[in-house]
From TrEMBL:
Designated name of the protein: ECF-type riboflavin transporter substrate-binding protein
Spans through the membrane: 12-37, 49-67, 87-110, 116-142
PANTHER family referenced in this protein's UniProt entry, alphabetically: UPF0397 PROTEIN BC_2624-RELATED, UPF0397 PROTEIN SPR0429
Gene3D superfamilies in alphabetical order: 1.10.1760.20
GO cellular component: membrane
InterPro entries according to UniProt: ECF_substrate-spec-like
Keywords noted in UniProt: Membrane, Transmembrane, Transmembrane helix
Length: 156
């Protein structure tokens, strides 16, 4: 969905990436972000825009750092877990899109600073919303498919 800023759209991919990053950790997240964004750019535009590919990988890597702190695999994802996941993904989006992507755009592609920082701020907000809504919903739904620790007992 367009945001009104050139080359900056709201995409569900960031919510899905955040979900898998939180579920499988930072290395998986890094690969998901790099490969997913790289392939998406190559298919849509003919070649990857590497500064944003790196930012996507970094976003998923940082979001994946929440992995050991969540108990989604144990059937738990409520209150503090939801807050923790969203704090991580918001920090990841701000670092990646407000700092890393614009600086790489300037250094690698000689893009104008005012444009890339505007794009970065809009991308950080839209990606954080996507990750916050879609990622949270997917993690909550997934946690309901897992058995809670100690919920199963052996029949006598």
């Amino acid at each position: 969905m367009p945001t009104g800023i050139p080359e900056t759209d709201i995409k569900t991919a960031y919510g899905v990436g955040a979900f898998f990053s939180a579920l499988f950790g930072p290395i998986a997240g890094l690969l998901i972000g790099l490969i997913g964004h790289g392939l998406s750019d190559a298919i849509q535009y003919g070649s990857p825009w590497w500064s944003w590919v790196v930012a996507s990988g970094l976003t998923c890597f940082i979001t994946g750092l929440v992995y050991p702190k969540l108990k989604v695999d144990e059937g738990e994802f409520k209150g503090k877990d939801i807050l923790r996941f969203n704090i991580y993904q918001i920090i990841a989006n701000v670092i990646s899109w407000v700092i890393v992507a614009p600086i790489l755009d300037i250094v690698v592609y000689a893009e104008p600073a005012n444009l890339v920082f505007t794009q970065g701020i809009v991308a950080a907000i839209s990606n954080a919303i996507s990750a916050g809504v879609i990622g949270t919903i997917l993690l909550a739904l997934y946690s309901k498919t897992r058995s809670k620790k100690g919920s199963l007992s052996k029949d006598q």
